[in-house]
Please model this.
Amino acid sequence: MADSNMSDNIEAYLKQILQQANEVEIRRAEIARRFNVVPSQINYVIKTRFGAENGYLVESKRGGGGYIRIVKMALRTEPDLIDEMRQSLPEIVSFRTATAVISSLYREKILTQREGELLLTMLSKEALAVGDVAIQGQLRARLLQQLLNRLRFESERD
Amino acid sequence: MADSNMSDNIEAYLKQILQQANEVEIRRAEIARRFNVVPSQINYVIKTRFGAENGYLVESKRGGGGYIRIVKMALRTEPDLIDEMRQSLPEIVSFRTATAVISSLYREKILTQREGELLLTMLSKEALAVGDVAIQGQLRARLLQQLLNRLRFESERD
DNA sequence: CACCCCCTTGACCAATATTGACATAATTAT
DNA sequence: ATAATTATGTCAATATTGGTCAAGGGGGTG
Model:
């Protein structure tokens, strides 16, 4: 029954809960105790199996009453187009390119016009004014990557 | 349903009152007694959960007949509210603070939920992963400033 | 055998909550 | 006026969580 691999067991345990609810909230120390592993292994499991790439959202809080919450998101109906955009996105992205990407998303009805405008505000040169222009382009690329990845899923929360 | 965390309970209690009135006035010692905590913890709750980033203003008076009053900033006109949030925004902004700001904007109907989620994606640690943590906080601050700036002009057109 | 990938561990770090001693302000009594 | 009383404010110490990182372990693969 039990795998020799504790990380897989912990993953299965959490996903089993997520089959019936679309979020789990745990206390790290408690889960670590239950599976008889060191607390930081919980972080390892979360980072390797519940990342944003896999459609999960993780929130946590330290200190008294701290917790880790994993929220499951649903795959969009048409993720293929978004995937292609992600894969063809360069390492360094100019504001002009970013505008083109956002426009495409708007044309495809994946973003509303206002959503696009707000996001472009954050992708502007003024917002991303960091030392080097190349670094600015890298940063813009990462912001877009994160956005595209997020758009592959839809939130199920209120 | 009671959190193991008293500060959250006190926050919830106050916000529940604020759902029906747009301000609440308390006697610190009385609330402290009711929740069985030390009086200064009330100050902690107010400072961490009812600041301007969260859309609240706090007035108080000491001595006989003293009180603490929490007022929703929604009473003000929209551009002023946004201005106050901008001015009270620190130079370095954590993701937690950013979440508080976005939540406030959502609560005031200035952003939709989805807009807030997409913007938070770009304000996340993963998106803004740059060398230093301080730099990351500065960057996040600038992104938020840009956003608030844009939203202010938007609201002025009404 | 050499290598690589993934898992596991623990030392150290960071964030949040709680408490209490002491300070400050406003009101009331003398 | 002054003192006593009644409130809230500040700050630093301590407690209570989760986060990061780098080193080591173990099994499969070329």
